[in-house]
Design a protein that fits this description.
alpha/beta; Herpes Virus-1; 2 domains; five-stranded parallel β-sheet; three-stranded antiparallel β-sheet; 10% strand; binds zinc ion; hydrolase; ATP-dependent activity, acting on DNA
Amino acid sequence: FQEYAAAGTVKQNYANILLLLLRLRQACDHPLLVKGHQSVFKGDGSIEMAKQLSKERVIDLLARLEVSALCAVCRDTPEDAVVAMCGHIFCYQCIYERITTDENMCPVPNCRNTLSTESVFSSGTLKICISGKTSTHAIASSSADDELSSISQSSYISSKIQATVDILNSIINMHALTDSDTIESNPNRVSPVKAIVFSQWTGMLDLLEFSLNSNLIQYRRLDGTMSLNSRDKAVKDFNIDPEVRVMIMSLKAGNLGLNMVAACHVILLDLWWNPYAEDQAIDRAHRIGQTRPVTVSRLTITDTVEDRILSLQEEKRAMVNSAFGEDKSSAHATRLTVDDLRYLFRI
Ligand SMILES: [Zn+2]
Ligand SMILES: [Zn+2]
């Protein structure tokens, strides 16, 4: 960053700088995230579609994917980047969620291209088209195996995951101690204490799942790449099944009108540029019908980039409140200024 600042090219290199920040933010969650293992795409249908494009077109789309661009939905460095037929770049999660709900128009203003799950491509898909290989399954499954084995072999559990498991365990046990008699005498009145855990990265959710499994904590998962039916089922299980105490969830899947008042604990594993996206997430639990106080835990690592993101959030909250009144969701809160960046890199 210092180099960009000295050369006066911070604005031109905004996307690259966000990528640097992304790595710092991910390092706070778990070192494996920075190694950049890719989650495996399920969008196999898009290969057939991509094969019908001209070779020039495929090469052009691939080139767009490989320059670092920002996701047009969340305006952050894309996770599992995909390119749409119209050339716009998204996180797989961000765009998948759009095209599986009713609006299937490209979310970029003035683009108006209609998109479907078959018309967004990962770089893997495009490369297969160029090389003319037909067996995609071999590639997909071997990378899935690699990923799983690298997670299971690492006995290392990051501090955030450890802290999360500790909090969840204490929530579950606390309930068992204080409410055990009431439960037996009147099982319908006391609903068990439940928690939602949020992260921005599906990779972090994968790592967390691993620890939840080994701690025998029952959970459901919700992320932007799941089908509507499996999402509905996950939410229903979480709200109704007394054994399912935890929902782990991607912040990017947060813009559905979900109601999860069964939860009265919210744990945020990482920080988001736009504080209102976090507020929205917390509102999942904090809704009409919620009868208990909601506790929010935000896990951050001191003396890292996260401290500075937190104080930037405070500032933006104050600024947005005074300058924009009601329009809190606007891009103003998301875009970082040169001064913000200087601050984040401590220059
Ligand atoms: Zn995105
Ligand atoms: Zn578009």
